[in-house]
Automatic annotation (TrEMBL), chain A:
SMART domains in alphabetical order: EFh (SM00054)
PANTHER family on file: EG:114D9.1 PROTEIN-RELATED
GO molecular function, one term: calcium ion binding
Keywords: Calcium, Cell membrane, Cytoplasm, Lipoprotein, Membrane, Metal-binding, Myristate, Nucleus, Phosphoprotein, Protein transport, Repeat, Transport
Name of the molecule in the record: Calcineurin-like EF hand protein 1
Signal sequence range: none
Presence of the UniProt keyword Acyltransferase in the record: no
Family, as annotated: Belongs to the calcineurin regulatory subunit family. CHP subfamily.
Predominant location category: membrane
Keyword match Transcription regulation: no
UniProtKB/TrEMBL annotation, chain B:
Protein name: Glycerol-3-phosphate acyltransferase 4
Molecular function via GO: glycerol-3-phosphate O-acyltransferase activity
GO cellular component: endoplasmic reticulum; membrane
CDD domains given in the database record: LPLAT_LPCAT1-like
Gene: GPAT4
Length: 195, 451
């Protein structure tokens, strides 16, 4: 059968995802269609290979780190809920959300959560700290073979020196936030939908 | 007992006889005779118009049904889902850095932790929507054409619509399909016999070929509009076209004679290929020869230089694409140095999607789907001939031809390789990105050491 989008996603599920991620109804069905077109095995989950099949992602120097962000610790498959939860980080922040009830749980696309997504791209072993080694590895991914080890090492050292305030030669999430406090995270880490 | 069945038997025989005669006459009058003489009755255009009206009505019903239930309709958008700015790596990273610091750009540091935002966003954008993977599956339609295969709003179909769909199913599988199967069967056997047994003079064999292809075309209920026939490919040239399905060959060959290029297959295809060679020279390769690019190029250029030989038909994309875009042209056929006659083929997806998704459907199920669609409607544009200019290499020439075809057919012009359907992308593209980024980091250091 050719029908993909609406039949396999129930209305209740769409409502739940809407509440959790803040995407609109049409955005969710659109992304579900995208999810099923990536799911070549047709088993309702995506594996790492499914992501790597996207050429534009495969040529992204940090492609593997981004793919990793979708998979929780130790898992090899991501279902649609998990897929949407990760994509929700890139939803633009709307004005009315800024005045929301402060006791409600933080939305997935808040400034803090966007920064957390970026932080986790650096933090390879998920220990909530970016060590010199981890920074070097990520830098190496971004520059390929074009910069020598010494130069890269000095870049890493300088970056940690500037960011590290408590002297443990690692960058914690709080230190990360402080370094990037002036950057326009809301705009640079958001993807605008056309509909 | 006997007496009881006899009159019934007779009646059955008479009925069968009548229906068979009617069938055959219909076949002869509407398909074979016009094909031989190349005329048309205009019935198919009427058919098209009626179908379109029915599809519009069907879509309106679905929309109304959805509104009544207060649900949202799944609307396919052939354009992008997300807004993507075409800014370069350098521009974007500079912008991110500028927003993050009050420092002067000259004394800006080589690396900022915020650089990662660029890669993260680009990566997630490509996960949400990318230009390449959607070209390898059938195009989504805005209105429903009563085929289950193209329907995404299955839950909103009313009773009336279901009845119509059922009727459509009956017509397509019970009437159109057998009607189409007969002549195509006939043609295949006829083609084989004629070509195989008789070594005909070129003129006669051309006529036979055209006739056979025209029968095939009518068999598929293909409604083709040819534009600019004055630019039709001439002998000694190469005809290039965008590739959507094996039917492309039938469509082009029913309007002119071409020499085909391809691999020799086994089985029935192989027999047909070998018999075609006897009638007029095609360029078939053994599987082992295909790997040898020089051999291929030599045979092609030999063929082209002989002005009495038919123009070669080549599909430089190398694989079937879903007719919304044109992907990278392989440069082999553009290196030979002959005149290139570009042809743009655009199918109208509302009547039946002609794209062959070879990873999903085999040849037989594909042909079945084709024969049970409403019709195959397409436009063929013959573009003016092009040759390689001074100082232009094969790749640039190929891109120029590709751009012309894309422009004429209203297709998106992509630089990506159609081979990505099956293979992984080459690492060189990633290395290019890495090189660009490294220049940003290291470049500033060089400037600093200079000042």
């Amino acid at each position: 059968m050719g029908s993909r989008a609406s039949t396999l996603l129930r209305e209740e599920e769409i409502e739940e995802i809407k509440k959790e991620t803040g995407f609109s109804h049409s955005q969710i069905t659109r992304l579900y269609s995208r999810f099923t077109s990536l799911d070549k095995g047709e088993n309702g989950t995506l594996s790492r290979e499914d992501f790597q099949r996207i050429p534009e992602l495969a040529i992204n120097p940090l492609g593997d780190r981004i793919i990793n962000a979708f998979f929780p610790e130790g898992e090899d498959q991501v279902n649609f809920r998990g897929f949407m939860r990760t994509l929700a980080h890139f939803r633009p922040i709307e004005d009315n959300e800024k005045n929301k009830n402060p006791t409600a749980s933080e939305p997935l696309n808040s400034r803090s959560n966007k920064l957390l997504f970026a932080f986790r791209l650096y933090d390879l072993d998920r220990d909530d700290k970016i060590s010199r080694d981890e920074l070097l590895q990520v830098l190496r991914m971004m520059v390929g073979v074009n910069i020598s080890d010494e130069q890269l090492g000095s870049i890493a050292d300088r970056t940690i020196q500037e960011a590290d305030t408590n002297g443990d030669s690692c960058i914690s999430f709080q230190e990360f936030i402080k370094v990037l406090e002036k950057v326009d995270v809301e705009q640079k880490m958001s993807i605008r939908f056309l509909h | 007992m006997e007496l009881f069945f006899n009159p019934f038997d007779n009646l059955l025989c008479i009925l069968l006889g009548i229906s068979f005669t009617v069938w055959f006459t219909l076949l002869l009058v509407f398909i074979i005779v016009p094909a031989i003489f190349g005329v048309s009755f205009g019935i198919r255009r009427l058919y098209m118009k009626t179908l379109l009206k029915i599809f519009e009505w069907a879509t309106l019903r679905i929309e109304r049904g959805a509104k009544e239930k207060n649900h949202h309709l799944y609307k396919p958008y052939s354009n992008a889902i997300i807004a993507r700015e075409p800014t370069s790596l350098e521009e974007e990273i500079k912008e991110i850095r500028r927003s993050g610091s009050n420092k002067d750009l000259d004394s800006a540091s080589e690396f900022e932790m915020s650089d990662i935002f660029y890669f993260a966003r680009r990566g997630v954008e490509s996960i949400m929507d990318d230009e390449v993977t959607k070209r390898f599956s059938a195009e989504e339609l805005e209105s429903w054409n009563l085929l289950t295969r193209s329907n995404n709003n299955f839950t909103y179909i009313s009773l009336r619509l279901t009845v119509l769909w059922g009727l459509g199913l009956l017509i397509r599988y019970g009437f159109l399909l057998p009607l189409r199967y007969e002549p195509s069967d006939l043609t295949e056997t006829a083609c084989c016999c004629i070509c195989f047994h008789y070594r005909m003079k070129n003129f006669l064999s051309e006529k036979v070929h055209l006739m056979c292809y025209r029968i095939c075309v009518r068999a598929l209920t293909a409604i083709i509009t040819y534009h600019d026939s004055e630019n039709k490919p001439k002998n000694g040239g190469i005809c290039v076209a965008n590739h959507t399905s094996p039917i492309d060959v039938i469509i082009l060959a029913s309007d002119g004679c071409y020499a085909m290029v391809g691999q020799i297959h086994g089985g029935l295809m192989g027999v047909i290929q070998r018999s075609m060679v006897k009638a007029c020279p095609h360029v078939w390769f053994e599987r082992s020869e295909v790997k040898d690019r020089h051999l291929v190029a030599k045979r092609l250029s030999d063929h082209v230089q002989d002005k009495s030989k038919l123009p070669i038909l080549i599909f430089p994309e190398g694989t079937c694409i879903n007719n919304t875009s044109v992907m990278m042209f392989k440069k082999g056929s553009f290196e030979i140095g002959a005149t290139v006659y570009p042809v743009a083929i655009k199918y109208d997806p509302r009547f039946g999607d002609a794209f062959w998704n070879s990873s999903k459907f085999g040849m037989v199920s594909y042909l079945l789907r084709m024969m049970s669609s409403w019709a195959i409607v397409c436009s063929v544009w013959y573009l003016p001939p092009m040759s390689r200019e001074e100082g232009e290499d094969a790749v640039q020439f190929a891109n120029r031809v590709k751009a012309a075809i894309a422009r004429q057919g209203g297709l998106v012009d992509l630089l990506w390789d159609g081979g990505l359907k099956r293979e992984k992308v080459k690492d060189t593209f990633k290395e290019e990105q890495q090189k660009l980024y490294s220049k940003m980091l290291v470049g500033t250091q060089e400037d600093r050491s200079r000042s």
